[in-house]
Amino acid sequence: MRKLLLVKLLLVVLQLSTLPDVRANVQLPAIFGNHMVLQQNAEVSIWGWAKALEEVTVTSSWDQQVVKTTASNQAKWEVKLMTPAAGGPYTIKIEGYNTILLEDVLIGEVWLCSGQSNMEWSARAGIDNAEQAVAEANFPFIRFFRVGYRTADVPQQDLDGQWVVCTPETMKDFSAVAYFFGKDVHQNLNLPVGLIDNSWGGTPAETWVNPDLIAKNQAMAASAATQKEVTWCPVEPGKTYNAMLKPLVPYHIAGVLWYQGESNTNDPENYATLFPTLIQNWRSEWGYEFPFYYVQIAPFKHYGTQAGARLRDVQRRVLQVPNTGMVVVSDIGNNENIHPTNKHDIGKRLANLALNQTYGKKELPYSGPLFREMKTDGNKAVLYFDHADKGLVSKNKKLTQFEIAGSDQKFVKADARIVGNTVVVQAKRVKNPAAVRFEWHSAVEASLFNKEGLPASSFRTDDWVIK
């Protein structure tokens, strides 16, 4: 009998030893971990969960700053720390009933990189000179965080992913565009860079927007309803916003890189409302107007005759939104391949944009010619451009991508010639020009550049309803 009691007691002890420690409740979301990068010279938030009323203490090694808080009755807590100028590695200690020590933490520049497959595209998937690029990817002060694929009907509090150091092994499966951007920023500024890859191939922009905002706008809601179901990604409003974006808020970022639009060529005009809505939605979530830099979609013949050009022009017009920037890639695309393999130059152009506009490197060119205004001179239309102060050039003997129309709104092919930093356009059939279009076809080859070698964007000068 005594042996039986001892056996039962032993079993109870073993069972109790396997139960979780109800006092060890301090937890962190996945975005916080070893090897992470925090934004420099900023007030950053660190948050998590703990037992209700549990006292939580956070200590940073860069200044031994100690911040205390108490978990709410919802088991949540949050503290704010002031970060120094770029440097590291540091540690952050989070103490409650248990202790978490975050090690190898760097302070630098953090960029959120999002969109669809061209942002997601990796060296393993296939890029130019992939073998050399992978072999050279030894940058211990560049860190990656890849957000795992998830969807949700309501906003989530956590996501899947972890911070890793940039090595050939980790780089080959990470966003190539984000990597080449980060490498250039790191090498130009000589500071740590953290890159959060939050992309999913094929996703239309609607999936990355708060669904309530789309539901409140009749036109956006109607357009979203036309997105056809596919097998490789969600298309419904808010699905990735809820699961992959919302849990990152308010992790402090320097800005956003966006490469998306291919899946919205079915309704380019709606994108004129949808894309600015997305930008404002994200900025509202974080509570500040961070830079939002994006890649214009490349020419591709399978969009249909004009859909690609129409969406590229919409992207150009979105530059009216403050603190945005766009890089044009019509010279390094592939009309047969929706995924241009020259991700090196795309990343570099994004880096030059950020280095010039965000980090003050004004000597770096960051944009090709952008249409500014049209003036008429008899039967001629004279086009003026931003980013053309040093002049315009053509890589062909003749500019062939211009069309002109009179008040009848019927466009015809036009003769065009470069005159300094302007383009003069005319056609015998149009006596009184009313509008000009450039590269108004989904599949084009870039022909107009500035002296810095960057291509001009597709554009139209009119606001006529496209039939």
TrEMBL record:
GO terms for biological process: carbohydrate metabolic process. InterPro entries: SASA, SGNH_hydro_sf, SIAE. GO terms for molecular function: sialate O-acetylesterase activity. Residues 1-24 form the signal peptide. Pfam families: SASA. Gene3D superfamilies: SGNH hydrolase. The keyword Hydrolase applies. Keywords: Hydrolase, Signal. Residues 109-354 form the Sialate O-acetylesterase domain. The keyword Hydrolase applies. This is Sialate O-acetylesterase. The lineage of its organism: Bacteria, Pseudomonadati, Bacteroidota, Cytophagia, Cytophagales.
